[in-house]
Structure formats: C-alpha cells, structure tokens
Design brief:
5 helices; 91 residues; elongated
C-alpha cells in the first residue's frame, strides 16, 4: 500500500510516469493504470484530501498471484479432505 500512496502523492505533485518509475515505486505500465484509476476517482485533485489506505485498497482490488505462487497440492484437495473426514491426522 505504501507504494500506491507514495505514487499518488507524487502524481498529485505533477511528477511524470518516468520520474515515478525512476524512483522505483512502480513500473510505468502499472503507474499509468493507477493514474487512470486515480483520475477517474478524483484523487489527483490537490484540493481534495488524499484517500485512506482502505479506499485505495478497495479500488485496486486484490493482487493476482502468479501461477508459481499457487499450491501444487490443490489437485489433491478432495482426497485430503476425505482422509481428514475419516479421522486421519498428520500428528
């Protein structure tokens, strides 16, 4: 959330996509998508207060996990649940 709040503050100050990218807050493509979202919600207007973290989080949604971050045991879930229902315990 820090990167989004900090990038938003820099956008409100007039920093460009390249300047925000050089600061290593987020890549230019991600920054461009976030700038569109912020503009649509009126967050770039310095006359309005900066939104709370919860509001920013709700607007950007949950991050997508890469395929490598997904569990490899998911395919065996029904089998494991059946074992647990039969009373099998690992400890």
């Amino acid at each position: 959330m820090y990167e989004y709040r900090h990038a938003l503050m820099r956008m409100r100050q007039g920093d460009s996509e390249r300047e925000i990218g050089r600061a290593k807050l987020m890549g230019r493509a991600k920054e461009a998508r976030f700038r569109e979202l912020a503009a649509a919600r009126g967050w770039l207007d310095p006359a309005h207060p900066v939104p709370e973290d919860a509001e920013i989080g709700a607007a950007i949604g949950r991050p997508r996990l890469p395929v490598t971050a997904q569990s490899s045991i998911t395919a065996f879930r029904p089998l494991v649940e059946r074992w647990l229902a039969q009373g099998c315990r690992a400890w």
